[in-house]
Design goal:
heterodimer, A: mainly alpha, two-stranded antiparallel sheet, disordered N terminus, B: 504 residues, alpha/beta, 6-stranded mixed beta sheet, 17 helices, globular
């Protein structure tokens, strides 16, 4: 469905160059997969594919709404602590009530509430989003620790554990073990890629988001309800981050306030790596998908090659920096 | 050819090609020392590209500059500065949060071992400013100066770097009449000191008042250089620019007016100090004239809900309307084309289609806010065709269009709505002659179809040429009203001039 709007986007001139320009990062992703398949042992196995997909799903889920945030010229750090907080809250409510729906609603509601605070402060009080979400990030971290009393909370409920482990399709090997499966978090991630990609390209909400990022004052004077759009974006962002936290907790079987440290930067880097502009106005879901997978695959390949995690940080930083430099070089010309 | 016979600044066969566009095609002319040389042409004629080659912002594809006989192709703006070239753009390149003196000496502040010598800095800056006849305290924050004085700071900055070639890019577009006089005095002084001055403008009157010679560009090509302006008339230059005669720029014809379209009573708010009351009829063009800062834009912004009004009421087609936001105004069919296209009009990094549909698309959605993409394309095509927008495609980013075409896209944005009252704020600023006359024609056509048009302009002949009736604003107040028959230029201008500046 998104094809109809994206097929008309490139300029009529310069076929190959325009294609490279649009598909640039997706091509690099394809190249990366091919190179890793040949050079990294065990990379091209069904088992590894499964774990790459699962690994990127958390970052991928939150990156869908982060795309909206960045495209509107905003920024959200608070997702970094909303993910563990969502997990903790879900585990807690579950422990006390045993009610799955209530537990998930509580987590999502809390995320949306934090997003609402972010949105109102940024849109109505005109406070810089970096500062606003840095503050709420710290507060949410505190809240998660207070709720959990500093400990991680075990989840004994089968329904929740099934939430993350439900899989379709499942392929078995000849000995009856699982060869390859796509689990629920991965499906949810894909569904959100599609949903938010569609929202961005085809709906008033998405287009207004891009217009606000492109020129907020012009958008306001064209009658676009700028504040409402911004608040909506932050609320969605908060709820989706909490959802990612619930899925992560159910996968690990615990709500842990110390998990996912620094993930907000991985999410933002993945978006930027894919080509989403930090100044707003430019962004596509394909950029985000490419960025999320490039990051995930590089990480996975380094793990398979047993590269020390200390070095992994250096490599990841270097990749991000070169992607941004490459992009600047490309748009300058 | 000996270098002595050459003008001080020579553009030698300059060509600039962007992908798919030939912006300059072999432009050659010279600017003599001690002269002010006008550079004219419609938007998209290549003036800005030529200035960019001069300032070192862009490099020409072929050709070069010669300054004092020495060949240059500037690799950067600092290289141009080092060669004594300064370009003063419409948008000034100054730091509002720094002091006047710091701005003037930015990049080469007087210092002792890395520590800025403030006393000396302020002394030097004061000398430079006095040279320009400005009595500004160099320690003032730049942000506190009016735009005219900021421009003087920019000129002082150029002079401290020993600029001998100075180019001005439409320097008067946001200046008041008095500031313009001051600027002209300074430019004449610079001419006397032997500077070679290139002066880009759309205002014919300024060319004949200030300039010694004139070069006209059209479609990136050099049309003609008039070494003297003594013997030629504005018509000749207009003809050079557009390649044809424009008989009557405005072509005003009386229209019959209908019922009251907009009734404003006692409107006050930021910048509008006394309650403003007036009305416009269907089919009427109401001109709103005033000096810069008189509150014209502020009044329009109150009507549009862009700034909240503190008191007053608005009726559209005799029904009361509450306007708290632009969205409210648009719903009532009151739309506003902003003065500052770049900051408040276009979304530069989005397409022509998006910019055209920015407002009206909210009404063409199915469930869940999904935009009707067929409508999107059809509406954008219909509007751009009707308004004769020159663009390679609807997907072109709007920032690549010329000012006139951008303005037409914004007009298309509003004409996609059901408009009762069209408010235009300086609709032809920075727009070439051809596009101007198209916009005038459009205004007459819309009025003839029954739209009420409210147009603000600093260009007095324009207001008088277009309007059925003229309102004059002065110091935040509606000061006078003239019918078309009574609106003699000197009377309208007299009504706009501040009465007692000391009291204001």
């Amino acid at each position: 469905m998104t094809a109809s709007s994206s097929s008309v986007s490139p300029l009529k001139s310069g076929g190959a160059a325009a294609l490279l320009d649009r598909a640039g990062m997706l091509l690099i992703l394809a190249l990366l997969v091919i190179v890793c398949s040949f050079t990294v042992p065990n990379f091209a196995s069904p088992n590894n594919a499964e774990s790459v997909l699962l690994q990127v799903s958390t970052v991928g889920i939150v990156a869908t709404t982060m795309l909206f945030c960045l495209a509107s010229g905003n920024f959200d750090l608070s997702v970094g602590t909303l993910i563990p907080a969502g997990g903790v809250l879900c585990a807690l409510v579950l422990k006390d009530t045993g009610n799955l729906v209530l537990a998930i609603s509580a987590a999502l509601g809390f995320g949306a509430f934090v997003g609402l605070i972010n949105g109102v402060v940024v849109a109505k009080c005109k406070i810089n989003p970096l500062i606003t979400t840095l503050s709420t990030m710290m507060m949410v971290k505190g809240v998660a620790f207070v709720f959990a009393d500093g400990k991680s909370i075990g989840i004994a409920n089968d329904a929740v554990l099934n939430l993350a482990n439900a899989a379709f399709p499942v392929f078995h090997n000849e000995r009856g073990g699982v060869l390859f499966q796509i689990t629920a978090p991965v499906w949810i991630c894909f569904a959100l890629f599609f949903l938010f990609g569609f929202l961005l390209n085809r709906t008033i909400f998405g287009r207004n988001t891009l217009a606000i990022g492109g020129n907020e004052e012009a958008a306001r004077l064209a009658g676009i309800p700028v504040d409402r759009v911004k608040i909506t974006i932050f609320v969605l962002q908060g709820a989706i981050a909490a959802l990612a936290g619930v899925l992560l907790a159910s996968r690990m079987g615990i709500g842990d306030p110390k998990t996912a440290q620094g993930i907000e930067l991985s999410i933002i880097s993945a978006c930027v790596l894919g080509g989403v502009s930090l100044t707003g106005g430019v962004g596509r879901m394909s950029y985000v998908i490419a960025g999320v997978f490039i990051m995930g695959i590089v990480e996975n390949a380094m793990n398979l090659l047993s590269i020390d995690s200390f070095y992994q940080y250096i490599v990841r930083g270097a990749i991000l920096l070169s992607a941004v430099l490459f992009d600047r070089f490309r748009t300058r010309r | 050819m000996s270098t002595a016979a050459q003008p001080y600044l020579v553009f030698d066969d300059i060509t600039k090609t962007y992908p798919g566009v030939k912006a300059l095609r072999g432009v050659s002319f010279g600017v003599e020392e001690g002269t002010v040389h006008a550079l004219m042409g419609e938007n998209g004629a290549g003036k800005s590209t030529l200035l960019k080659a001069l300032s070192g912002a862009h490099q020409p594809t072929t050709g070069c500059l010669r300054i004092g006989g020495i060949e240059h192709v500037f690799a950067s703006t600092s290289a141009a500065m080092a060669a004594g070239v300064a370009v003063i753009y419409q948008e000034l390149h100054l730091v509002p949060e720094m002091t006047v003196a710091e701005n003037i000496y930015l990049g080469h502040l007087p210092q002792h071992g890395g520590i800025v010598d403030r006393t000396r800095l302020n002394e030097l800056a004061a000398i430079q400013l006095r040279r320009l006849g400005e009595d500004i305290d160099p320690a003032t924050k730049l942000a506190r100066l009016p735009i005219g004085q900021r421009q003087m700071v920019e000129i002082a900055k150029a002079l401290t770097r020993g600029a001998k070639v100075i180019a001005f890019d439409e320097p008067t577009s946001s200046l008041s009449a008095r500031e313009i006089e001051k600027l002209f005095t300074v430019i004449r002084d610079l001419r006397r000191e032997g500077c070679a001055i290139l002066y880009v403008t759309h205002r014919m009157e300024e060319v004949f008042r200030l300039c010694d010679a004139c070069t006209v560009l059209r479609d990136g090509a050099h049309v003609r250089t008039h070494p003297s302006l003594q013997t030629i008339t504005p018509d000749v230059l207009v003809k050079d620019m557009v390649g044809r005669d424009i008989a009557d720029v405005y072509g005003y014809q009386p229209r019959s007016h209908g019922s009251v379209a907009l009734q404003v009573s006692g409107l006050t708010g930021p910048g509008v100090l006394a309650p403003a009351s007036f009305s416009i009829a269907r089919g009427e063009i109401l001109g709103l004239f005033g000096l810069v800062g008189a509150g014209r834009t502020e009044l329009l912004k109150l009507l549009f809900g862009a700034t909240p009004a503190t008191a007053g009421s608005i009726r559209v087609h005799d029904a009361p309307v509450t306007v708290r936001s632009p969205a409210d105004a648009i719903r009532a069919g009151v739309v506003y084309c902003t003065e500052d296209r770049k900051k408040e009009g276009i979304v530069p990094i989005r397409s022509v289609m998006e910019n055209c549909n920015l407002s009206a698309r909210r009404r063409h959605v199915s469930l869940g806010g999904v935009i009707d993409d067929r409508w999107e394309r059809e509406n954008a095509r219909a509007q751009t065709t009707a308004l004769a927008v020159k663009t390679p495609s609807l997907d072109q980013l709007i920032k690549h269009l010329s000012g006139g075409n951008q303005q037409k896209v914004i007009l298309g944005r509003w004409l996609s709505e059901d408009v009762n009252v069209l408010m235009l704020d300086e609709p032809t600023r920075g727009i070439d002659v051809g596009a101007k006359s198209e916009i005038y024609k459009l205004m007459f056509k819309l009025a003839a179809e029954g739209m009420a048009v409210l147009v603000v302009s600093s260009d007095l002949p324009e207001v008088l040429g277009l309007a059925d009736r003229v309102l004059v604003m002065r110091q935040g107040r509606l000061a006078a009203e003239f019918s078309r028959a009574d609106a003699a230029p000197e009377r309208v201008l007299a009504a706009a001039l501040p009465i007692d500046t000391a009291a204001a």
